[in-house]
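Weekly modeling sync, notes
Attendees: S.R. (lead), two postdocs, one rotation student

Agenda item 3: backlog of single-chain predictions. S.R. asked that every request posted to the team notebook include the full sequence so nobody has to chase files. The rotation student volunteered to paste the first one in as an example of the format we agreed on. Action items at the bottom.

Example entry:
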Amino acid sequence: MTEILRGQDIAPARGRLGVLMPGLGAVASTFLTGVFGARRGLVQPVGSLARTGKIRLGKRTEKRFEPIKDFVPLADPSDMVFGSWDIFPDNAYAAAVKAKVLRSEHIELVKEELEAVEPMPAVFERAYVHRLDGPHVKKASSKMELAEQLMADIDGFRTRHRADRLIMCWTASTEAYRPAQGVHASLEAFEAGLETSSEDISPSQIYAYAALRKGVPYVNGAPHITTDCPALLELAAEKQVPVAGKDFKTGQTLMKTILAPGLAARALGISGWFSTNILGNRDGEVLDDPESFRSKEISKLGVLDTILHPELYPDLYGKICHKVDINYYPPRGDDKESWDNIDIFGWMGYPMQIKVNFLCRDSILAAPVVLDLVLFMDLAARAGMHGIQEWLSFYFKSPMAGEGLYAENDLFIQRSKLLNTLRYLGKADLIHHTGLDYYYDLEGD
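Predicted structure, as returned to the notebook:
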């Protein structure tokens, strides 16, 4: 029997974990309200695997299930402190009230804690978010100076809050789509571009650069290109810092990554998949701009190919008509509604249809994703892991992958990678679900 490799030692989660969030809007304020409420025992962190999930260990016959938060040394939310940047000066309480995601009784329960989270002036460029503008922004003579101001903010936050470790997680709006350019080809080129204020360097990339320079892990919760370019991956490697992204997997795409693997598993054909959405929050307003929508469209459209593998099954998936549409509809607020029409075919090519109407709340679905990513990225950093954290693809619409690898979008494969990585870090046997242990004395299933 082959011995399974065990995980490396992990530094303990001592002291305070600082969470820095560019963007103090609906997602961030909903996240904070839930964390503050949960650590006082007032609400439950539903949707968070890190806080409520359990992991199976050993064979099925052993019936061993352990809470994830007890199996690996995760930070405790009671030890977390929070900071943010935003183009509006509203503190987290005012932001939560304006976002109208949560009922007032939940917001008022933790009003004092929310009011204590006041945003620092943001790095902002209207060319990257056409539909928003705000007064609470940094001024500088170059983008390098903006990065230096952010690094000063990071140092100041660490000192004020006596934070022992930091994580930065992008919770702001989607930036306009911009493909990687020459300035992104190397760290040297990128830093030269910061000095000359290259128009190809986005605000999110300035945040990521500042974080990585300071040795702070970076999570990209939106679909635009940030750390997924050679320049910033080079910096992450140099600083031995983990990065993850991109685009929190919450509503319609979450459903897509649940349904598509099931259809593929049964070798059912798909001739068309039409997806449309309406939402009325700030994210919807931003995505009403074609350039910002393009970032989201690319993120959403890429999901099916890596699940269905049309190059391997051209007769089943080679001619899919896949369309994605997002419509800004202010009356709906944060309560997004999505419709999917899926045209499938089965035995002898006979057609069938699946229709899905998902009435979801984007920020409610995103909040536990933010919590899990913060806790797991901190775990990765303490375990000495750096670069792209593919095991966290479970949480992203358009997950980053190593050079030469395709991104895995099958939710269930992603989940297996996540849980097996936790088993590895916890020095437990990996589980491969062979089903052969019934017949043979094998480790695993």
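Discussion: group reviewed the output briefly. The longest strand covers residues 269-279.
Action items: rotation student to repeat for the remaining queue; S.R. to check formatting next week.
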